Fold:
Amino acid sequence: MRKKHTLLLVALVVGVTSAGMASYPSSASAYHTYETRLLDSTAYSLHRREARLGLMQLGYGIIDQLQVTTYTMPWLLGAIFQTVAPNVHLKSTFYDRKRLALAVSAGFLTGTVEQPDDTQIRYFLVPVSFEASVRINSDVSTHFGVRYTAVDGDAETQPDGTAIEGTLVLDFLQLWAMAEWRLSRVVAFTFTVRWVPYVSELVLNGTVDAGNPNIRAELQGDLSALENAFAIIPGFVFSWDRANIRLGVGYSDFFVEGFYVVVPGDVLSNVTFEFDVFVRF
Structure:
């Protein structure tokens, strides 16, 4: 009950703040215009030669219908664990008319995690997405998306002189929907729902070199706890001439931006959030 009260308090404070900002005279160059749209969880992309620099993402518009993005969290975590985690994401808004926009996107993320026992775990993620945005009127828009993520990896360790090598395979599907209500040219209210309807079994194929002959084994891990994972996140996006703030606090599982995976809700006390500070120019 206390968690729910905390979430309600946060939503109330943010709501009152946004209402006050919405009533304040907005700049004529603020970003909530017909041409400039929200990018996250939508079918829209950066315009040609437009850049986005933020805490969570760095992006650049190659042409009006194509942008390239890299997420900062994998790079930061890679630096902390002394490994590089390069990632690139391409998004193409291939259709954009008066009320409807459609986009496809794909990317990759790879990295290595080294354990204290000299175990090396290498991972490779390939997400593929489809997004659709519908402009109901000048103030209200809805956005829908589906993402399929394939995860491959391998591990290698040598405990007590015995070499163990293995590979893993995992696939999961994510759906989302977001409603956007522009309260002013500075403030937009968002309400996002995310859901994981399918997660495959974690398949591990390994080889144990304990001499001659080698021993091969195949194990399957049950990840059914992540199936039907969901998040409900109300939030706000504040946009000025260059600066932007995205803020949201919600309930249930945490969808990790940039890694395309889901953290069970009980790890973070069933609190999920969205946050980013960035500039567009």
